[in-house]
Design a protein that fits this description.
Belongs to the sigma-70 factor family. ECF subfamily. By secondary structure, the protein is an all-alpha fold. It has helices spanning 3-14, 18-28, 35-52, 59-77, 83-91, 101-119, 123-134, 139-146, 150-171, 174-192. The chain folds into two domains: 3-98; 101-192, Arc Repressor Mutant, subunit A. It contains ten helices and no strands. The chain is elongated. Residues 172-193 have low confidence and may be disordered.
C-alpha cells in the first residue's frame, strides 16, 4: 500500500481503537509515565507494517499483538525488571486467537458445572467455600462472619474443594477431567498449607 492508503486505513481502523490500546498498556505496564511513549511506538509499528503488507482483518487483534510484543521487548531492554512486571508480561502470552466464541462458550459451560457442583455442597460448607474462594475473604474474616472457629473454616474449605474436585472430575469427559481436578487439588494443597 502507498502512504495515502496506509494513512486512510490507519485513521479509519486504528485511531478509533486508541482507548483500547491505552487501557491495555495501563493494565500490563508498571510505569505510568511510559504509556504515551508506548502508545506512540505501537502506532508507529502498525503504520510501518501497513506499508509493507496489506492490513490485517482485525485491527484490534493486530494492535494488541503489536502492543504485547512491544511490552516484551521493552521489559527485556530494561536493566532492572521488577518481578511484578515480569509476571504481567508472562500473563500476556494468551493469544488473541484463543479468545474465540467456542472458548467463551466452553468457559461458560465450565462455570455452570462448577456452580452446580457448588450448589450440591452442604449449606455451611458451601457458604465457607464461597466466602473464602469466591469472595476472597480471609480465614479469620470468614470465621468472624459465620461465628465459627478458624480451624473449622479451614476444614470446611478443604472438604468443599475436595468435593468440588471429585464432582467435576466425575462430570468431565476424560480429556478434561484432569485439568479441573488438578486446579482444585492445587487449591486444596495451598489451603492446607
Amino acid at each position: 500500500m502507498n502512504d495515502e492508503e496506509v494513512s486512510r486505513w490507519f485513521c479509519a481502523e486504528v485511531l478509533p481503537l486508541e482507548a483500547n490500546l491505552v487501557r491495555f498498556l495501563r493494565k500490563h505496564w508498571w510505569e505510568a509515565g511510559d504509556i504515551d511513549d508506548l502508545r506512540q511506538e505501537v502506532f508507529t509499528r502498525m503504520f510501518e507494517q501497513g506499508r509493507r503488507q496489506p492490513p490485517p482483518e482485525s485491527a484490534l487483534a493486530f494492535m494488541l499483538t503489536v502492543a504485547r510484543n512491544l511490552l516484551v521487548d521493552t521489559a527485556r531492554r530494561k536493566q532492572v525488571v521488577s518481578i511484578e512486571a515480569y509476571a504481567d508480561v508472562d500473563a500476556l502470552a494468551i493469544g488473541v486467537e484463543e479468545l474465540t466464541p467456542e472458548r467463551h462458550h466452553a468457559g461458560r459451560s465450565e462455570l455452570r458445572r462448577l456452580q452446580a457442583a457448588l450448589d450440591r455442597l452442604p449449606a455451611r460448607c458451601r457458604e465457607v467455600v464461597q466466602l473464602r474462594k469466591v469472595d476472597g475473604l480471609s480465614q479469620r474474616e470468614v470465621a468472624a462472619r459465620m461465628g465459627i472457629a478458624e480451624d473449622t473454616v479451614e476444614r470446611q474449605v478443604s472438604k468443599g474443594i475436595r468435593a468440588l474436585a471429585a464432582a467435576l472430575a466425575d462430570e468431565d469427559p476424560p480429556q478434561q477431567a484432569g485439568s479441573w481436578a488438578a486446579k482444585l487439588r492445587l487449591n486444596v494443597r495451598k489451603t492446607n498449607g
